[in-house]
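Q: Hi! First time doing this. I have a protein sequence and I read that you can turn it into a structure. Is that right? Here it is:
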Amino acid sequence: MKIKKMKINKIKIYDSFIEKAPGDRKMARRWRYYRETGELYVPIVINKEGYLVDGYTSYIIAMADGLKKYEVIIN
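A: Yes, that's right. Below is the predicted 3D structure, encoded as structure tokens:
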């Protein structure tokens, strides 16, 4: 496992994430946490090929808030 800062727009997303969007209540909780703490609720985890494997809600928030780079875990 390795942690590094990465450009958010370079993260690749599997279709399975896009096809099953997180629920509104879950996203509302994640947004509330982000606004209160300035941190994403769960880490963004990618594989060695650059595909997101966990932290889709965090990815959505990072993109929506215009974050350019953020720490990701490479698994």
